[in-house]
Amino acid sequence: MYSASCLCGEVHMTINGPISDIIHCHCSLCRKSSGTAFATNGFIDSQSLTIEKGQEFINSFEVKPGRKRHFCKQCASPLYSSNADDPTRLRLRLGVLDCDIAERPMSHNFVDSKANWDSLNMDLPHYSEFEPSRSK
Q1: According to the model, what pLDDT value does residue 123 have?
Q2: In which element (H, E) is residue 29 found?
Q3: Which among 18, 54, 119, 128 would be 20 to 30 A from 87, CA to CA?
Q4: Which residues form a coiled coil (predicted)?
């Protein structure tokens, strides 16, 4: 079982099942909805998702007919996406997970539309906290 929550903590969810087909999506829709270079998504069985707290805080935006992105209306955290053509699966935004997972991403998708400042495997320094030059 996996636990997940939004940024403000109003929405708490559990996923009682595996997460499959995890990808880093670089399409413009995922970039805009996440506000980052890409979104990491994985599929879950819709029956495995339980909203433990905060159902009233979940809102949705229909990106295309039948395709909705569900988010916390308090803090705007993206939670999952649904597709009316396949109601048995949801696409979970892995950034909302509060625990480690066993599964791993399998690919970077839509790389031809990636942000021009993202070079995928750029060799950059790694820090365990803020970069040393940053004022806190």
Answers
A1: 79
A2: helix 28-34
A3: 54
A4: none
Q: Find tokens 């039948």 and name the residue.
A: 66
- In the chain, DSSP assigns E strands to 2-5, 12-15, 20-25, 39-45, 49-53, 58-64, 67-72, 78-83, 89-93, 107-109
Return the bridge partners of 68, or none. Answer: 62, 82
Give the integer Cα–Cα distance in Å for 73 and 68.
Answer: 14
Question: 11-35 pLDDT, tens per residue?
Answer: 999 999 999 999 999 999 899 989 9
44-80: b or e for each residue (b if 16 or more CB lie within 10 Å)?
Answer: beeebbebeebeebbeeeeeeeebbbbbbbbeebbbb
Q: Which of 105, 101, 51, 60 is nearest to 83 (CA)?
A: 60
Query: How much is the pTM?
Result: 0.89
For residue 82 the two structure tokens come to 């649904």
